[in-house]
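Next up, a specimen:

>
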Amino acid sequence: MDQISENSIISVNTGTRIMGKPFSVFLVDDDKMFLKSMEHHLQHKLRRNVKIISFLNGEECIKNLNQKPDIVILDHFLNGQYPSAMNGVSVLRKIKEMDPGITVIMVSGQDNMQVTIDTMKYGAYDYVIKNENVFLRVENAIKNVMHSIQLTGELKSYKRWTRVILVILAVAFAAAIVSYFFHI
């Protein structure tokens, strides 16, 4: 699907997560060329493990949070082409307010320590500077998040099975006690 609207979604690529659905990644940047290049790079490097949806502004990203992205790659300076658009920190704060479980990776051309501190303070997972290594750094950050999400899912599964086994053992133990005392 290509270019749905000038200000919203640019494109969607889908893939398959090794164990279940693919990871959902929102890319948000007002620079179309950067957005398409990042999308192409991630789709090539992460193969079928991601579903990527791209947005030209933060407002469209926020409108689509009901799609429950796992990761949002968010540009810090989103109002370059649209002066009335929300900036990246405002979008970050809104995302975290709506769903604190979404991992946000902030991307910016600014190598400013205060900007980095502010984005981390508001809940960004990482801050990546747009330089010659930006694609690789974002790719690695996404891989780290994907690994963390998979481990968290496995841990939840192990806890669930542990509870089931404990209930079965408790019922078996109770049955053994009842049988012993009542000679059933």
Notes: The beta strands are 9-13, 23-28, 50-55, 71-75, 103-108, 126-129. The longest strand covers residues 23-28. Residues 134-182 form the longest helix (49 residues).
